[in-house]
Design brief:
The chain has 88 residues and is mostly helical. 38% of the residues lie in helices and 0% in strands. The chain is elongated and about 70 Å long. The termini are far apart. The model has no long low-confidence stretch (mean pLDDT 81).
Length: 88
């Protein structure tokens, strides 16, 4: 007893970087119109910063950002820029 297996051609894989925010905004549902922004390359390379904060602080930050319609990362970046200005 033998089985025949046929392999199809692999789909092409895009090597373009994916803008996660644009992807999420585009996939929020069809019940409302979503605007997908063109990815903007940062002025300089970005580095990831991971910190641990109390759950209550995280909740406050997240809810305030939601009320303002802003992203947590943008708000925290602005705070860090204010607290740590570039040295001249």
């Amino acid at each position: 007893m033998s089985k025949k297996v046929q392999f199809t051609k692999r789909p092409a894989v895009s090597t373009a970087p994916v803008n996660a925010d644009a992807w999420v905004n585009a996939n929020q549902g069809n019940d409302r119109e979503t605007k997908v922004e063109t990815p903007v390359m940062p002025e300089e390379p970005m580095k990831r910063l991971t910190i641990d904060i109390p759950e209550t602080l995280h909740t406050r930050v997240k809810s305030q950002c939601a009320k303002r319609g802003s992203k947590m990362a943008d708000e925290i970046r602005a705070l860090l820029e204010t607290h740590f200005p570039p040295s001249e």
